[in-house]
Amino acid sequence: MRENIRIATENDIDVVKDFLGRSEVSSEGVESIIDHFIIMEDELGKLQATLGVERIGKDGLLRSLVVTSNIEQTQILTLFKSAVSLAKHKEMQDLYLVTNREASVVFFTMLGFSRVDEVEIPETVLYSQHIRQIAQTDQAIFMKTSL
């Protein structure tokens, strides 16, 4: 598959919200931060993956990663690298993520993220709705990279 990776625009709001909704991922607030989403489309322009970077003060939080089943790991890596570049362009200082999959830690470590304890996360980030949803489980793993 030949993909096109780009920053989402206002014209993509409905498509992104529908894509997230079909995967049962919250699309709350997408309208106000659509230019903080990286999207991957196939050669026909059909959405194949998305990843958002929510600004919280001077920091960012990766959210809303959704991929179709035909996306390869190298394409996911490219998507993440694009999101990190977007966060740098938006002049964020630190980028956080939370996952409940231990298997994902190796992948995120390759991208420059390190595990952090919950107490090391700024309260503004820690109490964001996205983190609260995932962190409800005992398996929540927090990671950070400095930009």
Strand content: 25-35%
**Arithmetic mean of pLDDT:** 91
| Count of helical stretches | 5
Most strands sheet: 7 strands, mixed
Main sheet strand line-up: 1-2-3-4-5-7-6
The value of Rg in angstroms is 14 Å
Structural class: alpha+beta
Q: How many strand units?
A: 7
SSE pattern, N- to C-terminal? EHEEEHEHEHHE
Q: What's the N-to-C terminus distance? A: 31 Å
Helix content: 25-40%
**Low-pLDDT sequence parts:** none
Shape: globular
Walk me through what this model shows.
With 147 residues, the chain is of the alpha+beta class. It contains five helices and seven strands; from the N terminus they run βαβββαβαβααβ. It has helices spanning 13-22, 73-89, 104-110, 123-126, 129-134, and strands at 4-7, 37-41, 47-56, 59-67, 94-99, 114-116, 141-146. Strands 1-2-3-4-5-7-6 form a seven-stranded mixed β-sheet, with helices on both faces. β3 and β4 (59-67) form a beta hairpin. The mean pLDDT is 91.
